[in-house]
Amino acid sequence: MPRNTQAPADERLHQELQQLKEFMNHLPVVVYHYRLEEGQRPHLLYMSEGVERLIGVCAADAMADPMNLFSRIHPEDLPRFLEADRQASQARAAFSEEIRFILPDGEARWFHASSIPLTAADGITTYHGFIEDITQRKHDALRVQESESLLQQIFDTSNVAIFLVDRQGTITRANESMARMFQRPCAQIVGSPYVSLVHPDEHDVSHQKMLALLESDIDQVDLDRLYWRSDGSTFWGNLSGKRFHDSQGQDRGLLGVIMDITVRRQAQEEIRNLAFYDPLTGLPNRRLLLDRIEHASASCTRSSAHGAVVFIDLDNFKTLNDTLGHDTGDLLLVQVAQRLRECVRQVDTVARLGGDEFIVLLTDLHEQPTQAAAEAEGVGRKIVQALSAPYQLGPHAVRSTPSLGVALFHGGRTQIDELLKQADLAMYEAKAAGRNTLRFFDPRMQVAINARAAMEKALYRALENGEFCLHYQPQVNAQGRCMGVEALLRWESPELGSVSPAVFIPIAEETGQILAIGRWVLEQACRQQALWQRDGLTSGLEVAINVSARQFRAPDFVPVLAQTIAATGAHPAQLKLELTESLLLQDMDECIARMHSLRELGVRFALDDFGTGYSSLAYLKRLPLSQLKIDQSFVRDILNDANDRAICQAVIALAHSMGLRVIAEGVETTEHWQMLRQQGCAEGQGYLFARPMPAHGLQQWLGGKLSG
Prior knowledge:
Layout: H1 2-25, E1 30-36, E2 43-47, H2 50-54, H3 59-64, H4 67-70, H5 78-91, E3 95-102, E4 108-119, E5 125-133, H6 135-157, E6 161-165, E7 171-174, H7 176-182, H8 186-189, H9 203-215, E8 220-228, E9 234-245, E10 251-260, H10 262-276, H11 286-303, E11 306-314, H12 317-324, H13 326-343, E12 349-354, E13 357-365, H14 369-388, E14 391-393, E15 396-398, E16 402-409, H15 416-432, E17 438-440, H16 447-462, E18 468-477, E19 482-493, E20 497-499, H17 501-511, H18 514-533, E21 542-546, H19 549-552, H20 557-568, E22 575-580, H21 581-584, H22 588-601, E23 604-610, H23 617-620, E24 627-630, H24 632-635, H25 642-657, E25 661-665, H26 670-678, E26 683-685, H27 695-707
Parallel strand pairs: 16-17, 19-21, 21-22, 22-23, 23-24, 24-25, 25-26
Antiparallel strand pairs: 1-2, 1-5, 3-4, 4-5, 6-7, 6-10, 8-9, 9-10, 11-13, 11-16, 12-13, 14-15, 18-19, 18-26, 19-20
Helix pairs in contact: 10-25, 12-13, 13-14, 16-17, 18-20
């Protein structure tokens, strides 16, 4: 009975062992067992059939003689494997080693061999282990290692400062370029707060911004900051930062890159100084003055205070220049500038318009006009007295007197040009009164203003009566090829004759008529461009269209232009909108958004009259521009005025550094063009090439150039 019971149990055990072996034979690893007895060589008890599938050695052969398996181990790895096995066996310890096996086809693959010992009561130790193919894992690790090595090389060899900042604003890593940039060892930088690198004047702002950034969901940052080195010297740097996460996706702070932009900032400052300050006297020039008046007018609107423009002209200055020479005249202008500064408050502005004409802008005058006029008159009398005192100009002792014209303003819709004209008219009244005195603008001087009112009235009828037309002025490259044209609005009034755009455009802008006129210009220019596409002579021309500030800021400008392009069949990639700096500086984010919307349609942008505004790189690099246009006021005297020549050269260099095309307007002579080309300007526009002309005239002009 017991014997009969034992037989089925043995059979079941045998079946279970067979199933277990079958299971192990199909595992994606090699399973093995061997016995280790004291003083005996290891005896291989079992090896799964996976060894043949993975390594190419029959399990039976391996069990018969383990060297059949060991001989497949890569020669470079075998000594290490045998030594590790010896030490594990000697210590009855677990074994783990990564080795290469040479497969029958010659391929070397990586495997991980591991085993653990189990020692019975009789002292016999049995090792149970696995051999796993880890080739892919090793390759993956190698790729990761290579990537990390490459990143480390980039980190170490980059010529810009690269660093990591944790969520508390502490620098946790920095490269050698950062150490060189800040003249501090990396060990000193790492562990210090980021804000410690920023100039003390900006500590509070930078610290708050960095903490706000690290605590926010903002993914990227782009800031210009003034930094300081260990020796106390400073430099401007552009910080580009991006939030970084660890392998588990946890936010670990910011990866930052600092690029030294000191040279660029200096170039920017140089352009600003050249563009906004008179090089002789150091006073603000007309461009900066107009901006100051605009801000003063807005301030008066908010505060209800008055302001005043004092127009100053030196009496008989031409005679002094002709008799004593221009150098002496320049000495006088410098001393006049200094005396004017001493006559006004720090909040007021003294500017030089040009020649012997100066402007003093007075702000924060009394709310009552009579009291404001009395305050302005007091400053005016002080100026007359100061400028009438004798001058010592080198060896010459001379006397000079001024004539002053004063115009008050009270914010609201103050027109700057009108204000200057009023002060100018009042100044001529002072000259007519015997010079060396001042006069206020009198309402009886309204002749010019009445003429303007008549123009407003005529302007209302001009569009309806078809009095507008477009002329096109060619824009050529250095080889003389016409690359495009600028569409220029012309008004032929039956009553007023030919009216300059410089006169009627500001009026149209103020009255709101510019919206309808601008829409007409866009439609006509697009329609003409669509027609030109069908003609081989004109098919490649780019058409530049000036867009006014009020027109561009109209809520429907983008959809209106898109509809116009679709309706006329114009090619958007050959349309270029010319925008001014002053336009973009007002509500910049909204302007940039509109530009990007139009850029997606294919429309391009040029920054018109570049250099006459503030030319800030902080906004310039954000604009989707394709071209900078040098204002003709700089081109006109480029041959004789070193200041204008330097501005042109700086603008061209700046455009090239930003990958933008650059074009100069107002090119009138071969010498102008030659100078601009030497400076690197590749495109020009002006009377040297052609005057603005109707569309049919342009085709004749192009045909003449082709036949010529």
